[in-house]
Structure formats: structure tokens, C-alpha cells
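FORM 7B: Structural annotation worksheet

SECTION A. Query
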Amino acid sequence: MATGNTGRSPHAGEDTHTVTDEYDAFHQQLRARYDGLPPRLQQIADYILAQPEDIALGTVGSLAAGAKVQPSSVVRFARTFDFNGYSEMQALFRKKLKSRTTPYRDRVNSLHAQNGAHVGAITILDGFCRAANESLDALRHINPTSLERAIGTLAAARCIYILGLRRSMPVARYMSYLLTRLEIRHHVIGLESGMEEDTMTTATSRDAAVVISFTDYAQRTIELCSALERRRVQVVALTDSPASPVIPPSGLWLEVTEADFKGFRSNAATMVLIMALATSVAERRK
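SECTION B. Predicted structure
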């Protein structure tokens, strides 16, 4: 498969960074070529973006059934993107799945010294501080044009919807707190109450949404983001990759790369970005 600027084939290495680069390169190529694909192949692309785990674990038949196409279309899709066939494309998704984050108990175990002794609390604190600083340093290089677009979109919105689940939920709640204090109308969708879609029944194209999601993107977040797009709500995505499934068709997204310490990722940069967005929107609405 041609993997953009990675300069490597999908079989050229198994380390996490290589797999992520290849996976992202494929998704970038997919988005770049999407509009020129035949309708059947667009259906497959939509399914792949929404259900990446199904590709890793399923068969040609299950992917075809999920995308509502013939199996031959799946093979054609794989070859369109320079894979030898479905198996080679699936291998990339399987490697990505294997490279996903480890269970929390394993992360805690990794904190122990090599001899099994406990690590000092100050050492752990220092590790998290360094990860937070690294995240903030990366945030300083955010695309200023995209940031201005995001603020303009949110400032012009009748109502701002906030969507963030799992690790992103504290960020969503904090943004809600800020907007409440700033007297800006908003709704939080990510309450995991089973009634999330009821929250957006009055959402229209006059509204905007901040969708916060990072690898490994919560499936429910992807579904709710799609529901917002169907209502023509203007989505501003806060995410970590150009291959992220929550990036809207408008391409309006802000890149947030959170560093980790022993597998525990910081939310430092995302929190700071949320503060900047909320206060900038309030300033624009003066």
C-alpha cells in the first residue's frame, strides 16, 4: 500500500509509532480521495471511519454487510488504496488494534522499579508534570487560522453543544462550568445517560458543537457526532489526528496531542485549550 509520506510499507515494522504513522497516512489518503470515490466505495469508507475495530476483527463478508455493499466492492476498495487485497488492509487495522493502550493495572505495575520496589511519589509527580509540560509545549504550535475559525464559529452560534465521553468527560464538564460562568448558552451531551440524542432535538444549523475525542475514539462519541452533523450543527473537533473519525466535513478541527507518563495521558493541553476557547468566545460576543 502507498502510505503517503511515511516511506514504509504496512509490513515494515511493528512499533507503536510506525503503526500509528501508517494508519494515519491511510486515513489521510482516504479523506483526500473521498470525494472522487464511486458511491459504493464511499459507503465502505464511511463504514471504515465509523467502525475501525470491525475491520480488524471481521471478514470481507462482515464488512460488506456492514457497509451494505457486495464483497467484491470491498476487495476493489482495498486495491484502490494499493493493498494487495482485503487481508493486507485488515493487517494494518489489526496492528493498530494491538498497539492500543494497555489496561490501567498494567500501567500501574509499570511504575515499579526493575527490582519491584515502589517508586517515590515525588518521582511519579515529576513524571506527570513533565508530560503536562510536553503537552502544553505542543499546544503552543496550534494552527492559528484554525483556532480563529473555531472561535468565530462558536461565537456566532445560538447555542454551543459540548460532547466528550470517557477521558474527555472532565474536559466537557469544565467547559460547561466556564460557559455557565460566562453566561453563554450551551448544552452538555456527554452525560452517558442513554438520552444523549434527546439533548440535541432542537439543534440546528444555527448552533455549533465542540466535540472532544482522542485515540481510541469512543464509538458513542462518533455516533453522536454524526447525529450532530445530520442536524447540520457546525462541529469544532478537538482531537489528536487528521485520521480522527470526529473531524467534520468542513475540516474544522484543532489538534491536541497529550503526552503520557507510563501510559497515563495528561489532559493538561485540552483543559488549557478549552479555557482559551471559552474566554475568547466571551470576548468576541461583547
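SECTION C. Observations
The first strand starts at residue 160 and ends at 164. The chain has two domains: 4-98, 141-284.

SECTION D. Sign-off
Analyst initials: ____
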